[in-house]
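## retry 2 of 3
previous attempt timed out at serialization; input unchanged, resubmitting
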Amino acid sequence: GFTDHVALGNEWNPWEEDEKNELAASQQRYEANLKMIKYARPHLEQTSLRVQIWGKAAIGLYLWQHIFGGHLEPADVTAQWREGSQKAGKTYFSFLTGPSVVPGYFSVEAEHVVLVLNGREQAKVASATQWLHYAQTLIHTHKIRHVAVVLLGNEQCNNGWIQPYLKRNGGFVNLLFVTYDCAFVNEEDIFQWPLGVATYRNFPVVEPNWSMLRDPRSYLCNFLGTVYKNSSRETLMEILKQDGLDKLCWIAAREQWQPQETNESFKNYQDALLQSDLTLCPVGINTECYRIYEACSYGSLPVIEDVMTPGDCGNSSMYHSAPLQLLKTMGAPFIFIKNWNELPAVLEKEKKMSLQEKIQRRKKLLEWYQNFKAWMKQKFIITLENSFLPSDKG
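## retry succeeded, writing output
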């Protein structure tokens, strides 16, 4: 079955304990999704497709190394040019990334291309647009036939600039996978894509191990991050100080965001995830943050401030209960809270949990995350194949 190769050993089933009612609905969606993959499997076996992925945004490394489990040569993250390949189903994928991958200076070796682009801010959009124009030229000159885009979207979901390039609007892009709760996600040719871990800070692919699963952890929770003025993060800090809860958690707040970690600060951050039962995830510019996926990697349960951030995200024609639609649809076993005033009660309950209960919860979280990545991979491949391969409909 589908779950066998992603389970952390087959001796346990994370769904077997009696779940709370609110999880039952997530579980049904989760199982329906697994069924969809099993059903799609035979279809995958008969196809043959060559796809080249051009990784021009760090999110491409999450796609290739974390979701696809692919490798890159050379291993050196500072290399000018890195590549890898992998056969999945009947599709042969090759992946290129690095500063030397520039339009016109590498060989286009497949008729089907996935462009991974950064559209987070104006300067990045300018570069992304050049890549789209390059792809458009290749289509016009019959060098390639199909293009899909994986887009690191804008945190306020201002992604309108890409609309004219979509096939549905007279452009040439067949499929779009976009991060955050973008309002034009329709599950037909535009899909939500996970933000993933901060690969631009070289966050590693973490393999779950025995001690990660079974060792007692020194802290109830952690929050290492920037505290913006007048944000809910200030409220969070006050609540932690009130009852001396900050003594039970690993808290390291700073006033200025730092894009590049020092080796020491990065090691501290990973240790905090590994040493805490819970990872607090207050909203930033968007509710979805790298921290959520990084906490999952280390079996530290995300506690998520489940509120919409200002901007154009949410309430698409598909979904009305944004934010974090993709994670919720996949039955993420997180703790969602509407207000940090709920935190003391969460931590009170946490103090009373036995190590055995925590181990069960970690198992469930780690397996869910493995399954989530495997499901995203399958969904990605199936979507590409359904779109790029000629259909038998005459």
